[in-house]
Amino acid sequence: MTLTAREMRYTTFIPDDGIRGRLFAELISIESMDAINDLIELGFIQNPEMDKIALYPLVQEIIISDLNPDSENCRPLLDNIHRICLQHGVDIPYYSALFAITENVPSYLALSENAATAE
Fold first, then answer.
1. Neighbours of 59 (CB within 10 A)
2. Which of 2, 110, 108 is nearest to 59 (CA)?
3. Residue 84 three-state SS
4. For 62, what's the count of Cα atoms within 13 Å in the CB-facing half-sphere?
5. What is the pTM of this model?
6. Which residues make Cβ contacts (< 8 Å) with residue 23, sequence separation at least 6?
7. CATH number for the domain that contains residue 100
8. b/e burial code for range 76-115 (CB count within 10 A of at least 16 → b)
9. What is the dihedral of CA 38, 41, 47, 49, to 10 degrees?
C-alpha cells in the first residue's frame, strides 16, 4: 500500500468544515506535508482556505467503499486522538476539530463495515 492510500483512508474522518493541514499531518503521524499536498494537487482533497483541508463528499464515499477504513487500518490516527484526549488539564486550542473527528469516527467506520459486508 502506498503512503498516499494510507492518508486517503484517514481523510475519511476530516470534519465537513475542514481541518488545518498541519494538524491533520500531526494526527496521522507524518512529518511532511508532501503526501497531503500531493492529494490536493491530484484533486482528491480540497483546500477551501489557505491552511485548511477538506474532503469532497463523493471522494469520501469512494474511500469508504474501496479502502474500507476500520479501527485496525486507522490505528495511528485513533491512537493519536486517544493520546491527546488523555491529556487532562491541558488546553487544546484545536479541541473543536478534534471533537468533530471523534464524532465522525463511529459513523464512518460503520459505513465502511457495511460496504465491506456488501461485497
1. 17
2. 108
3. helix
4. 9
5. 0.83
6. 94, 97
7. 1.10.10
8. ebbeebeebeeeeeeeeeeeebbebbeebbeebbebbeeb
9. 100
How many structural domains comprise the chain? 1
CB atoms within 10 A of CB 43: 9
Length of the chain in terms of residues written: 119
Domain range for residue 37? 3-118
Other C-beta atoms closer than 10 Å to the C-beta of 17 total 12
Give first-to-last CA distance, the chain, whole Å: 20
Average pLDDT over residues 88-115: 84
Say yes or no to pLDDT of 1 above 60: no
pLDDT band at 100 (very low <50, low <70, confident <90, very high): very high
For residue 111, name the pLDDT band (cuts at 50, 70, 90).
Answer: confident
